[in-house]
């Protein structure tokens, strides 16, 4: 068998060889339920009718509370821009592995597999470029992929505008000014992540991206028609039916903490496909590392923390345990816990 680009199969086999049997993910015989996420037409936010604007905002808030995920159409991002971005993304990932991994492309942001994995169930069968928005304008980052720069700049700006709009709606529905996150979340702190999930010759139960929650305020996902995204709903995994006309939005840990658990940061994952590769692009609305995250109301479920502190705790947990713990680390102790 010819080795894949990147060499995921070699690494996965090494993990499998050194793992105890109990740590190896077994194929499930359970048929996965397919779901249609709440679909929200954002043209309602631009309506001259106040009732339509309020109904649209209410739908966004309700989906964020009940699902932690929703889809948006009529979002204002040009279809042709998204198609151009996808074409450039495919061209980038088709480059030889050695070139992606060693030539400094996109601020040396290339990553693949899971370097911290100690067993197969912690391994992500994928590759990605995780790029700070501050770097996408730097010509030196692109090498021979010069046509990617202009498209990515326009795409990032469009996603930034949509993310601000949605964050503003979610903040205002809880009775706060929409500019709450504007100072802490800007092009200096946010990211684009270009993802590719190669075909996996092993079990389709291998994770393209292992179960996790997002560590930001919110994420906007542009995915292709292949599918593979699953999320936790009512204590079970459900498969998200792809909709090429829609963008997917999900709540991150920081917005759950800020909203005092009104909005939900939901665990999700990506499953592999044995025959077809999958592409997606995620935009992450993040604050600066110094930004303090506190609750919008009292009594607060979580203690105050900075984004930098949160990221450091995640990295420490992953290093020690192999997985992210996240918000439970930042719960306020009850009086009874203090007395123990």
Gist of the model:
With 340 residues, this protein is α+β, with helices and mostly antiparallel strands.
Please supply descriptive tags for the structure shown above.
340 residues, alpha+beta, Jelly Rolls, 8-stranded mixed β-sheet, 5-stranded mixed β-sheet, 21% strand, globular, disordered C terminus, IPNS-like_FE2OG_OXY, IPNS-like_sf, Iron_ascorbate_oxido_reductase, gibberellin 2-beta-dioxygenase activity
What does it look like?
The protein is of the alpha+beta class and 340 residues long. It has a single domain, classed as B-lactam Antibiotic, Isopenicillin N Synthase, Chain (Jelly Rolls, Sandwich). The chain has helices at residues 8-18, 50-66, 79-93, 97-102, 105-108, 146-172, 253-258, 307-321, 335-339; strands spanning 33-35, 39-41, 69-73, 110-112, 127-132, 191-197, 207-212, 218-223, 229-233, 236-240, 247-251, 268-271, 278-285, 292-293, 305-306. It has an 8-stranded mixed beta sheet. A 5-stranded mixed beta sheet has the order 1-10-9-12-7, with no helix packed on it. A two-stranded antiparallel ribbon has the order 14-15. β9 and β10 (236-240) form a beta hairpin. α3 crosses α6 (146-172). The longest helix has 27 residues, at 146-172. Mean pLDDT is 90; it is low at 21-30 and 334-340. One of its GO terms (molecular function) is metal ion binding. It comes from Actinidia chinensis var. chinensis. It catalyses: gibberellin A1 + 2-oxoglutarate + O2 = gibberellin A8 + succinate + CO2.
